[in-house]
């Protein structure tokens, strides 16, 4: 990135500003106080969520509860899709999960990729990867435009 006259990096614009504003929106969501995580929108149609799981999200048999799988996969796919839409918030209309391995404490990454759709309905996939690089779950979601303007949401801040 080019530096400004005072040696500072200028604020992002266009798509980059939208990605940073979506990251801000994610960080501001109250649910993420329960699921400490960080969203990274890498490029159009691709998002990553970094997080660490511990015993606080375990079910009675001592592994991560399915709500955590769903939350992270849905969010990664959602933000991959919403990276293509700069005016309105998308809504999840369906999400299918495939849980392949139990997860225990440690770092995880959810990677979301836009698959198709650019008007009203979007399809995106996500996969959940453990610290060893093994896929532990995957999912596919459909998302549609809402009537909720991104610019009207308090967490959506273009810097």
Overview features:
single chain; alpha+beta; Thiol Ester Dehydrase, Chain A; 20% helix; PaaI family thioesterase; HotDog_dom_sf
Write a compact overview of the structure shown.
Helix content is 20%, strand content 40%. With 159 residues, it is of the alpha+beta class. The protein has a six-stranded antiparallel sheet with strand order 1-2-4-5-6-3.
Furnish the topology, listing elements before pairings.
Layout: H1 14-28, E1 37-43, E2 46-53, H2 66-82, E3 88-99, E4 106-116, E5 121-130, E6 135-149
Antiparallel strand pairs: 1-2, 2-4, 3-6, 4-5, 5-6
How does the major sheet shape up?
6 strands, antiparallel
First-last Cα distance: 15 Å
CATH topology group: Thiol Ester Dehydrase, Chain A
How many β-strand stretches?
6
Mean residue pLDDT: 92
The CATH class is identified as Alpha Beta
Could you tell me the strand content as a percent range? Answer: 35-45%
What count of helical segments does DSSP give? 2
Shape: globular
Overall helicity: 10-25%
- What is the structural class? alpha+beta
How many domains in all? 1
Task: Give the radius of gyration.
Answer: 16 Å
Output the helix-strand order.
Answer: HEEHEEEE
What features would you describe in this structure?
This is PaaI family thioesterase. It holds the Pfam family 4HBT. Residues 62-137 form the Thioesterase domain. InterPro entries: HotDog_dom_sf, PAAI_dom, Thioestr_dom. GO terms for molecular function: acyl-CoA hydrolase activity. This protein is of the alpha+beta class and 159 residues long. It has one domain (14-152): Roll (Thiol Ester Dehydrase, Chain A). Helices cover 20% and strands 40% of the residues. The protein has helices at 14-28, 66-82, and strands at 37-43, 46-53, 88-99, 106-116, 121-130, 135-149. The chain has a six-stranded antiparallel sheet with strand order 1-2-4-5-6-3. The longest helix has 17 residues, at 66-82. It is globular. Residues 1-5 have low confidence and may be disordered.
């Amino acid at each position: 990135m080019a530096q400004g006259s005072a040696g500072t990096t200028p604020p992002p614009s266009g798509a980059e500003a939208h990605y940073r504003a979506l990251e801000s929106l994610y960080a501001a969501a109250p649910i993420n106080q329960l699921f400490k995580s960080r969203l990274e929108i890498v490029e159009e149609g691709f998002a990553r969520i970094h997080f660490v799981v511990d015993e606080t999200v375990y079910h009675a048999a001592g592994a991560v509860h399915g709500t955590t799988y769903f939350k992270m996969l849905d969010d990664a796919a959602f933000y991959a899709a919403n990276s293509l839409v700069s005016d309105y918030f998308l809504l999840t209309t369906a999400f299918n999960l495939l849980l392949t391995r139990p997860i225990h404490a440690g770092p995880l990454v959810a990677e979301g990729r836009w698959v198709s759709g650019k008007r009203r309905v979007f399809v995106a996939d996500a996969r959940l990867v453990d610290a060893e690089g093994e896929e532990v779950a995957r999912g596919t979601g459909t998302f549609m435009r809402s009537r909720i303007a991104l610019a009207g949401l308090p967490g959506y801040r273009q810097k």
